[in-house]
Each structure stands twice: as C-alpha cells, then as structure tokens.
Amino acid sequence: MNFQVTAGVDMPADTDRAIIGRSVPRKEDDRLLRGGGLFADDVTLAHQLEMAVARCPFPHARILRVDTTAAEALPGVVQVLDGRRVAELSEPLTVLRPVPGAPSLPYYALARDRATHEGQPVVSVVAVTRAIAEDALELIEIEYEPIPHVTDMTATLEPDAPVLHPDVLESNLMASNVDRAGEPEAQRDAAHAVLADRFVVNRVAPLPMETRGIVVSWRSGARALDVRSSTQVPHLVRKQLAESLRLDESSIRVVASDVGGAYGLKLGAFPEDILACLHAMLLERPVKWIEDRMEYFRASTHGREAFHDMMIAADKDGRITSIMNEYTTDIGGWNSPFGSSQLSSVTFTGPYRVADAQVKRNVVLTNKTPVGAYRGYGQPEVNFAREVLLDRLARRLNKSPLEMRRLNMLRPEDLPWTTPSRAIYDNGDYLRTLEMAATAVDYERHWAASRKPRGDGRIVGIGLSSFVERTGYASARFLANRGSQFGAHESVTLRVNRSGGVDLYTGVSTFGQGSETAFAQICAQVLGIDYDFVRVHAGDTGASPLNTGAFASRTLIAAAGALKEAAEAIRDKVLVIAAMALEAETDALEIRDMAVCLKADQGRSISFKDIFNRAITGQGIPEGIAPGLEATAHFEPRSASFSFGTAAAVVAVDPATGDFEIERFVMVHDCGVPVNPLLVEGQVRGALVQGLGAALDEELRYDPETGQLMNGSMMDYFAPMASDVPPIELLHTEVPSDVTPFGVRGVGEVGTIPPAAALTNAVCDALVDFGVEISQMPLTPERIWRAIRAGAAS
Amino acid sequence: MTASTNRVEISLEINGRTITQSVPVRMHAADFLRQTLGLTGTHIGCEQGVCGMCTISVDDRVVKSCLLLAVQLDGARVRTVEALSDGDRLSLLQEAFKRHHALQCGFCTPGFLAVAKSLEAWGRVLTRAEIRDEISGVLCRCTGYEGIVRAIEDYLGAVHGMSAQTEVPA
Description:
The structure holds 2 protein chains of 2 kinds.
Chain A: H1 29-33, E1 49-55, E2 61-67, H2 69-73, E3 77-82, H3 83-89, E4 114-115, E5 121-127, H4 130-139, E6 141-146, E7 173-181, H5 184-189, E8 193-201, E9 213-219, E10 224-229, H6 234-245, E11 252-255, H7 271-283, E12 287-290, H8 293-299, E13 306-314, E14 320-332, E15 357-365, H9 379-396, H10 401-408, E16 417-418, E17 424-425, H11 430-440, H12 443-448, E18 459-471, H13 476-481, E19 490-496, E20 502-506, H14 515-527, E21 534-538, H15 555-582, E22 589-592, E23 595-598, E24 605-607, H16 608-617, E25 630-635, E26 641-653, E27 660-670, H17 677-696, E28 728-733, H18 755-766, H19 781-793
Parallel strand pairs in A: 1-12, 10-11, 14-15, 20-21, 27-28
Antiparallel strand pairs in A: 1-5, 2-4, 2-6, 3-5, 7-15, 8-13, 9-10, 9-12, 13-14, 16-17, 18-26, 19-20, 19-25, 22-23, 23-24, 26-27
Chain B: E1 7-14, E2 17-24, H1 29-36, E3 55-58, E4 61-64, E5 77-79, H2 92-99, H3 109-118, H4 128-134, H5 146-159
C-alpha cells in the first residue's frame, strides 16, 4: 500500500481499542461478495407488473396525436397513460436545489403538448412483463411535429434561438448570479499581466453501473405507498413523491437498500418514479421500472457541461491581483432535482490569496437531456479553467508554475479565510501538499531542464493542479437563502437490543461510500461497544429519523456529530443502570469488553446485554429512570469544511501525433482525520479515475443538426476500463478540521477535481516549445495534434 | 405466437444442482438466472455485452450472460456468484476482495469475481498489466480498479503457492 496515514490524532486514552482511524473490514462486503445485495431490481413483489416508457426521439417536438389503441389491445398490457391523464392525476415534479433567481419550470412526468429533449417520457405502459410492455411501445402511434431546436450552449443565447420555456422565460437564460469582493476590474486594469480565455468543459455521464429503478406498491385501504428506489436520498424522494402524487408524507415509505453507484445522479425523484407510482395506485398492483442503458443515456441526467470565461491578473512578481470568472452551465431541457453545477462559484479562487475577484454564473437551457448533480458539482470544472490559465500566466511571466502557486497560496496562518464568494475556508496547510507533490515528481529539476525529446521521441511534461474542495454545507441558514429544500444536518437513531447489540438507523443509503462501516466505527468508539455488535439499518424512511442524505461530501461531517451525541446519550444511561446494579457511583465505572465494570475491581461487572435487557424490560433500573434505551440525535456542523491538495501528472507526449502516456499521477490530499483509511483510499482512487475519464475520453456528443445524442450507449461512451488507468500514487496529509466532530473532512468527491488541469498542464509543459495551449476537455490526442499545428502556424 | 412455440424446455447444471425448466425463447440468460431461478447476484448493466455486470461461468468459460439466450444454457454447467462461498464462509477469493477494498457499491463485484476465478487456470500469478487486461471486460465506476487488481494478485499468489510480488507503482 502506498498510502500513509500519519498518527497524532487526539484519541481517547484507550488507544489500543480505538477504532476510529483503523481500516476495519467493511460491514457491507459480505452480502455483496456473496451476491446477497438487495438492489432495486432484486425485489420482485407478488402480482407485480412492469413498466416501459415511450420517449420523444426528437430534441424538440410538438406532440400532435397519441393513439394507444393497439398497444392497449395487446394481450398482457394492463394500462397505458399519456401526458394529459398524468397532468390530471399529479403535480409537476419539484426541485430540491433551485437555481437562485430562476423561475420554476412546471414539468410533468409525461410530456403533454411538447417535448424539450430526446428521451423525454411521452407515454407509459404497464404489462405483465417488461418484454410485453416494450412490445406495446412499438404499437403506440405518436405523431410528432419536430420544431426548431438548439443544443449548443452559445447558440441558445442568440436572439433567434427557439425559447424552450416561453411561458416563463423570454430567452434560454434561466438565471444569472454574481458573487464578488473588492475591486476586481480596477485591479485588472492596473495589472502588469492579464490573461483570459474560454475553457470548455465536456458533458459527461455519471454512469452508475446500476441504472435507476423503482418497485412500488399501493394499498389504498391503508393509504400506504411502499417504494423501493435506487436513490441517495430516500427522505427527499419521499418529500417529492408526496408533492407530485398529492399524498401526505405519512402515506409514503421509501426504502433504498443497496444502491449500485450514484455519484450525484440519484438525487431525487425522476419522471419515471411518478409514473410507476401512478400506475401502482390506479391499478392497486405493484409496478416495477428498471431503467435500461439506452434510457439511461437519454433520460436520466448528465453532468458538467459548461464554459468558463476566466481572467487572471498578476503583478510583475506573479502575485495574483484579480480573478474574474463568468461561466455558463447547461441545465438541459428542464430543471432536474439538483440542476447544473453550482459550486464553481464557491471555489473559483481556489487555494489562493485573492481578495479582489468576481464570479458570475449563467444557467442556460438547451434541447438536451437535463443536467443534474455529478460528483464534484462545479469544482472540477472551475479547477480546470483556473489551474490551466495559471500555468499559462506563469509561463508568460517566465516563472515556474510551482513558484507561481507557492507565491499565491494561502498560508496556514491566513486561515480561516473568507473567499470573495463568502465561503469560509477552515484550517489547513495547502502549501505542504504543493511541496509534497512537487518533491514527489522532482518538479524543480524538471522545470530547469530543456524539453528535448527522449530516445523514444517523446517529450516529458509535468503539470500541477492544486485545489480546495468544499465538503458539507455552511449551514441551514446558508441553504435557506438559496431556496434549497433540505438542511445541513444529519441524524441517527441508536437503539439497543436484547442480544446485546446496537441497531443504528440512518436515512443515509448505501451506495458504495462505506457509510455503514464508518458510522458503526464511530458508534463503537463512543459507546465502547464492539464494532461487530453494531448493525446499521440504512435508507428506510419508515425506520430512520428525517435526515438530509448522502451528497456534497457531507455525510460524515454531519453524521459524525449525530452519532457522537446519540452514542453518548446511550452510554450515559448505560452507566446509570450499571451503577445501580454494581452499587457504585457512575464515575467509578468503566466500559470494557462489552460490559461495565468497576475501575478498581474489574471482576465486578455487568454485561451490556444484561444492562440492555434491564432497560428494555424496565426491570432492574433505578427509580425515576424511564425504561427503554435509545437515542436520536440531529447534528449540524458549524461550518463547511474544506479538503485540499495538489496533484501532479507526468506525461510523455509524441509531438508528431499528439499521443501521450501518463507515466505518473501523484495525488496529495488532506481530508482531515480519516475514520477509516481504507475507505478514504477507495474514495480518492475511485473519484480520481472518474476525473481521469472525464479528462481523457468521456464526452456525450450531440449532433447539432439533428439534436440527437450520438454516443448514447455503453459501446460508444468510453468509461475507463482497468487497462486504461495509469499508475496512481497517493500521498496524504492530515490536518484535523477545526469545524467538524473528530476533525473529519469530506472525501467523496475530491478525486474528480484535479486530474483535467494536471494533465493539460503536463501536456502544455511538454509542448511549450510548440506554443501549445489547450482550453478544452477532453484532452484527446487529436486535440493536442491540432494545437501543435496551430502553434506551428502562429 | 402460441405458448407451445415460444417456450423451450432446457436442462442444465447450475451451481451443482441439475434442473429442468421451460423458458421463453427470447429470454436472455441473465434474465433467466435472475427472474426464473431467483439468482439475483448476477446483475444487468447494459444488455449490450459491454459493462460485464452479468459475467458468469459457463462450462468453465467466463461469458456475458446478457449476450446468451437462456436456451443456449441447455446442457451447460453454470456457476454464478452464489456458488462461490462455502456456506456462510467467504472463499479465499472473496476474502481477498474484502481485504483489499476491491468493492464499493458491489454491483460489479459478481462479474469481477467470475473473471478472477477463471484466471486460476493460467497456473501462475499474472502480472498487474495482465490482470488489468484480463478484467477489462467488466467495468467498475467506484473503485478505480486498484483494489480489484491487488485482490486478484493476492488471491492468485495464494492459489499457486507463491506470494504475489508487491509491485509499487513507479
């Protein structure tokens, strides 16, 4: 293992039994390794029907006529719904994280008169099998009138562009927001050097291996809608279903058992969820819908697509005096639950000391599949623009990119630092990660050397990319100001059982992040119970306290506090009951080996199991103490925490073809105190490879003429395979955050942020003598080859 | 079509059990395993033979069961993830995956286990590059593959009685 965790964390005295900070085996693994996971499609209910959906094949079309007669007559078909009926039966889908300042765009589960993107649902069918439901789709006659469409983000703002939502908007600009501080224009105008460019970020697919899915049943007599969903946010899906289906939340239970990857995609209710519920309620029969991969590419949500017009100004020494960034994100045809990326505005100045800066975000609509949250949510995008432009500026000033970063990076004593968009960076040591990365790749020596081809004709280049990542939310107050429909907290219920164990209930569903494991570790640590005796029950709204959910790298930051409070409450009561049983004062007791004993005489003890039974039965507990032993706690961290680090890429480029190899990729990062280093390494590596995929190969491409997605299948979309992944070296620093319990920082998304800039900078460094500048992702050999030719021409 | 023409009876050995079953002719093998036999450990990710979620062993060859029809399993010997462990005890291969954090969401894991198991037949420990090539027919979006490669290397070392060389990236 090339992953080191430094010691020195504040732990309770009993360090030999400390479990926070240890790479304990995951709670989740045994069932998943045995094929015993319970994913949405693994649930089959008696009398279940299956749903299939007819989708608009055009980017923009009027729906003139829908004839479902032949489909309804097909044996095995049970029900067909069209847009008109759905609009009578339900309310439009709601948004969880609105774009500040944007109007709501009423969006029903089925298109009525007009569809705004290829893949939008138009008719739904349920039948006794999925195959028959799909056969029925072939028999549905839908008469479309294709109307002018726009898929390009620049063209969509032209005066002649077809307006997607003319009832509520005059153009396809959905909203603009500005954050600023100081005098960025004046600083720019007075600067020694100013560089600006447009950076284009590709549209990509989050691509969980398990597609979306829902299995739903309705008992009208009980007014009980039971939903199994592949989601990151069961409680938020319940809220959205209640709103769209005109039900009380108390009538809905949403359960997410195992979720086969999510990455931000599975944040909230989608049209098909509403449709499956409507069919189930009308028919009083269970309905299953499992998205197929062709649907996935057109009808879930995409990620990232944006361009950033970035400007950096500096004085003659290379000190950054102003950053201005106007960026535009594509939200697609409608506003998905989380919409397009919002965090570019938060971290646009990165780890640098810049007081005069402005960021402006524009959100535009196009006739493409909606964009939703995807791991990083704006932070990889803006990092690409800023870090690539910073290298370019360094070269312009005849400084090394390392020196440029050194000069401008916030020092530990500058923190906490309020950014121009009023985020507050907590404590950290950014410079140390930069120096570690630079040392690991021997940057100084490389910089001084000439860029001569090696024996194999390739030229070596090294690129750096430093970053901060916001993990968690600043506060519920911050979210309220932005209209977000959720809080900044997490919650947990702990309940003891007669077997001597603790049942831990959380609304955070399990999609690979290891939360069952990390939560159990914290519970075990605080309560003093064995890890194996903590059982996590995740993702069931019928069992867990209301929570927020797993996204924004926020779960552990908030949940750790709730776990700590709840476990402490249990522990306190355990000690009170034990004190009575052992005829001692509570402060004379200690917890050891699943029992409470006297500090002075460990032979006198009472087992957890005995204590739990006393509490559950109310027999043998002190007078005046209520029976029962469970605790629910809610916790909101006092601030967001910022992870940080630096990546360095070493590439060898063939200047004749633009082909290149990634010979090394070093990532130095800090996520505060790792509760479980094995999980941390897994999160960082996994996100890095997603970031590498987006940087190198992945891109959803639309034909501007037809408005069709051209590579919407697994065969045509190039997600990294094992053989594509370069060697990755992880280095780790550990500065405990001073704003979170246990000093943790989020770690789920961090790897997606630096790769694109590190690789682009490395290629541009290798080809510096060719005048190569690259401002667009993905970084394909073709793009490099064209840049070499353009450099030679100029 | 009538019921008599669109169903066929097949016999196969599945995880050590011989069964005879009538199946629709158009049902693919992955649906058959999941829906007819209830072996839901085999997953479906694309039904196009790319993602590898449905990878199983048929007559000791690893195949993508979404590209096979159920009727093609007639007479075959089929192994799925459900046959890997010994009762409640994880097999050596499963333990290696657990030890090396070779899974996160676990959706792809049955496919990787099937491929990994098949690599025993090489009779030696594969290099990391060979392992990466061999497992490239299964996609994982969570782990970045490093844990999977380590687990397979470790497992093959144990099976072939030699310790895997620890290969630290350059």
